[in-house]
Amino acid sequence: MDFLYTHETLKLELPLNRPENADFVILGVPFDSTTSYKPGTRFGPTLIRQATLNLESYVLDYDVDIAELNISDLGDLSIVAGDVKRTIDRVEETLKDLKHLNPKAFPILLGGEHSVTLGAVKALKPKSYIVFDAHFDLRNQYEGNPYNHACVSRRISELGIKEAMFGIRSGTKEEVEYAENSDISWIHARDYSFDALIELVRPLPEPIYLSVDVDAFDISLVPETGTPEAGGLKFWEVIEALEWLVENKKIIGFDIMEVGGTTIGNVTALTAAKLLFYFIGMKGKP
């Protein structure tokens, strides 16, 4: 099946299958129209895929060779340049088509600015949304746009979906108040611990959508991202959290967002590529 809003591009250099038969389906979303500081996230999917060429497909920690897993890569979404709402709608429609074609497919989005996560959440309809992010993204609108990347968690919360946020270290007073009034759980990056995460996520209703805005990480790991912030999480802290979530909760979708830059092999892309392989490995292990 060909998907209306996708096009061929650089794909993962792994043995790939048709989406109707795959367990994991990759979709790139090369979009950065509302990026408010450093542009370049439109190149995120290509940079991540290219950075995987530096990695072994065998993930030591899980005794899993992801080259032996059933993976499909749809290529990239044909975004609508300058129109975030229509691009979000295309993400939603594409993932609905995918789930109709193959209900067992696990979608993984590579981005691309964080705004497009809304389309995935609307398509998959989780009961909870867990995000690793430096920012609340709870503004009602930013620069006159309610679908700005700074508003994605607000739009998701308005769908009645429970939210938990980790790595937060930037936001407005109004966003803090909105989180309190909307019963949104969050942990500041400087207060983060594995035990604190478990306490917040254990009671969340399932299924769950997982999102990683790479600016959640320490800035040394992700210098090429749209809105970098000092003081973030360590790589292994996030991996440990994802491992627990995969083992203990029903996860129905995952994304890695806000990878930017224009240089092949940049540090941010390498971090995201490693995260991608680890996530597929932990999800695909027996």
Overall pLDDT score: 96
Query: What is the number of beta strands?
Result: 11
CATH level-four homologous superfamily name: Ureohydrolase domain
Name the structural class: alpha/beta
Overview of this protein structure:
- The chain has 286 residues and is an alpha/beta fold.
- The protein has a single domain (6-284), classed as Ureohydrolase domain (Arginase, Chain A), CATH 3.40.800.
- It has eight helices and eleven strands.
- It has helices spanning 44-51, 84-101, 117-124, 152-157, 173-181, 194-201, 235-248, 267-284; strands spanning 6-7, 24-29, 58-59, 64-65, 71-77, 106-111, 128-132, 162-168, 185-188, 208-213, 251-257.
- The protein has a nine-stranded mixed beta sheet, with helices on both faces. It has a two-stranded antiparallel ribbon with strand order 3-4.
- The radius of gyration is 17 Å and the shape is globular.
- It starts with 5 loop residues before the first strand and ends with a helix.
- The mean pLDDT is 96.
What keyword list fits this structure?
single chain; 286 residues; alpha/beta; Arginase, Chain A; nine-stranded mixed β-sheet; two-stranded antiparallel sheet; 11 strands
